[in-house]
Write a structure and sequence with these properties.
It contains 5 helices and 7 strands, in the order αααβββαββββα. By secondary structure, it is α+β, with helices and mostly antiparallel strands. It folds into 2 domains: about 10-85; about 95-215, Protein Transport Mog1p, Chain A (3-Layer(aba) Sandwich), CATH 3.40.1000. A 7-stranded antiparallel sheet has the order 1-2-3-7-6-5-4, with helices on both faces. A hairpin with a 4-residue loop joins strand 5 (about 170-175) and strand 6. It is elongated and about 65 Å long.
Length: about 220
Amino acid sequence: MRYILLLVNNSRFNELGKGMWERILFACRVVVLLTGVVISGPAFSDEVEELIDEGRVAYSKGDMSSASEQLQNALNLIAELSVQSFIALIPEAPKGWAVEENSSEESALFTGIAGLIVATKRYKSIKTPAHTMQIALISNLPAFVKVAVGTMAGLQKRKTGASVVAVGGYVGSISCNPKGKCEVMIQVGDNALLTAESQGVAREVLVNLVKQVNLEKV
């Protein structure tokens, strides 16, 4: 899995004062409270806390390299928790389907953009494997990406045959081409995006699956 959460530039780590270090530790613990405790329970939370504490000890001894490494390990684990929490919000396979893959790979729409949290679940029909569906939740959108998302959402709505789809109080659009490919895009608040696509599947089947995504916890 690939996680790209960088809070500290290691080359400047020596310049951090005690106050900055404390703020970083506080930020890490806030993320743990918001993600790890709810989704993964005390085990993951404790592991993150241990890494943070090890970093604090190394910092107090002036071992900046080790302190930086432990902090980055904590951030990587927090990223893993975030992906797992998002995967849990995406529905399991409907009857007659199987989950082909859970992934944290970058979205094709935003390849190369650091800081994104991407959770993807892919499905295939048991009877006809060529028939597929995919749902992705993307969060931590940088400001310039938010602008692009707004533009793309507008273009999506203007596609021929596009119609409105609503999930958890958020409104987006779905469009399908003559070859049986459907695409869904829903902007979730200011910081997240839900995308979905299918091949060889009726529009209603994809819409029913997308409506099961729990966007209240995004």
